Amino acid sequence: MVSNEAQAKSTFAGNVTFVSDGDTLWVRPDAGGRPRKLRIDGIDAPEICQTGGEAAREVLKRRVLHQHVEVTVWRHDVYGRGLARIGLDGNDLGAQMVRAGQAWSYRWRGNPGPYAVEEARARAAGLGLFVASQPELPRDFRQRHGPCDAVSR
User: Is there a catalytic annotation at residue 47?
Assistant: First the structure.
């Protein structure tokens, strides 16, 4: 969910200090200060307790942990995370994750999302999540099971 507050676009560069899951990471800005929690805009990776969740986190970790990235924050979600496009060596990290079959292109109200082409190719190739014929979307998983901390109780 995206907050209704208008958020100004901001850009910065920094180093990835932590990866929470397949679409959330922490970046310490080069300009200093505390690391910022960011969600990769345009993708939806499986919940960490969902089938494929740990694999998606590991793929993201291998790609970006301790790497220097370029960040463009467009807005913030209701959890306070910056929704950001993240560049790694000039490549779009969101596109890389979807292309590898580790996340879905984020769908909203019938829109197939910004990475629909990458998702279609990953599905056709049976990569990552798409080894399963009908992998469960994270929002459907949350509706059925609640958040991961509720699943582990």
Answer: yes
